Amino acid sequence: MRSVYAWSAIAAIVLTSAIGDVLLARAMKQVGDVGALWRRTNLWIVVGRILRNPYFLLGVMAMTVAFYSLLFGLSWGDVSLVAPASASLTFIANAIGAKIFLHERVDRRRWLAALFVAAGVALLAA
Fold first, then answer.
1. Rounded to a whole number, what is the largest CA-CA distance in the chain?
2. Distances 25 to 6, 15, 18, 29, 70 between C-alpha atoms, Å
3. How many angstroms separate the CA atoms of 46 and 117, rounded?
4. Strands in 1-126 per DSSP E
5. For the segment 42-52, what is each residue's pLDDT rounded down to a tens digit?
6. Predicted model pTM
7. Which helix (H) or strand (E) covers residue 5, if one does?
8. What is the total count of domains within the chain?
C-alpha cells in the first residue's frame, strides 16, 4: 500500500512541478529581460512587475504543492526511488509542456533523451 502512496506522490510531484515550470516560464517571457529592465529602472520595479504577474503567482503555488508532495513521497517511499523518478519524469513532462503550451521547439534529441529517461524510471520501478 505504501508503494501506491509513493507513486501517487510521484505523480503529484511531476504534474505540479511541470505545471509550475510552464507557468513560471510563461510569466518570465511576459516580464521580459530582467537584466535590461533592471538597468532601465530599479530592483523594486522589477520585483513588482514579476510579483504582479498572475502566471508567476500560480507557478509558485504549483511549485509549493510539488515541494510538499515530495515531502509526502519521501515519507512513504524510498529516496532512491522517489527522488530520481520524480526528477526524471518531470523532465519528460516539461518537454511535453514546453511543446504544447509554450510552443517551443523540442528537437528529436530531446525526445530521445526523454525516452531514455522513461526507460531508466522503468528500471527503477522494477
1. 56
2. 28, 16, 11, 6, 21
3. 37
4. none
5. 888 888 888 99
6. 0.85
7. helix 2-31
8. 1
